[in-house]
Amino acid sequence: MSERKQFIIGSKSDAVSIEHMSRAIASLREAHPRYEFIGWPETLRDGKNIEDVQRDLNGALHALAKKEFDVLVVDAREVPLRDSTKVARAAVTRRGNPYDVFVSRGGMILDELPEKSHLAADAPVRRGQLLFYRPDLALIDEVGDFRFYYGLLDEGEISGFVSNASDVEALNVQDKVAEVFTSSICMPAANQGAQMVFVRKDDREAYEAVREINDAASEREIEIERIFMTHIAKNGKGPIGVLANVEGESFMIEAAVVAPDGSEKVSGNCEGRLDRAEPVLEKLASEMIESGAREILSAFK
User: Fold this and answer.
1) Catalytic activity, per the record (predicted)?
2) Which residues does the chain have with pLDDT short of 70?
3) Which of 134, 151, 156, 192 is deepest in the core (most CB within 10 A)?
4) What phi, psi does 139 have (nearest 5°)?
5) Structure confidence at residue 50 (pLDDT)
6) Hey, what domains does the chain have and what are their CATH numbers?
């Protein structure tokens, strides 16, 4: 590395993003004790719906490209499948718990809830899987984060809600969790639990610094999931859940495509070697498309 001594780190403004940024800064300081890594002092608006969240991500990427900071830490779930022309992914930090969790009044698990209980879930893939498993449930249309949903729960407006385990861990509210869903009940979204770290494509010094905190196994897992997503839905849109696990030079992957109303669910899984992943993933996606996923995904083009 050169004589450069300081790097400015940025993220979105919500509490979960700031916590993941802080963890990345700690890792960078450990890897490079002679360099200074500082959290960006400005904040981006915390979006209240999916469209706002996406605009905030684009705004953060734009700020990185405009040199408002040098490094951006972002939830991998939000990153589009298409590569940016101005920024580059330098690292994937160690993946957290990728599963979905259930938070409920009185600590009841999903099977214990009375019929027609009102629940909250913020994504079509979660809503569809909940309704496929429990068609009697009533899902509200409100979209929000953990704190928003917990407020509704505390006020008695809902009986429970679904969140992702890594957000719960970042907020240090594990004691609120009633149940960790297996993938058979609720397959997580692609790249859930992972954070990507971006730098500008022309900033070699930042890239070399950040690359030191890359977790190879986590990077391979998110790549496997993203490759699968490109084969089953080129735009990455739709009620799709997918989870990969990498051990050594081999991988296993399971996936689900579910109608948002819970009327249909198409599942599949496969395994293979990392150096032959592409054709294996393409085959799995093709089999699921022919088994009914095409009709479900047609509404999300």
Assistant:
1) 4 porphobilinogen + H2O = hydroxymethylbilane + 4 NH4(+)
2) 1-3, 41-55
3) 192
4) -100, 130
5) 37
6) 6-93+194-214 (3.40.190.10), 100-180 (3.40.190.10), 225-300 (3.30.160.40)
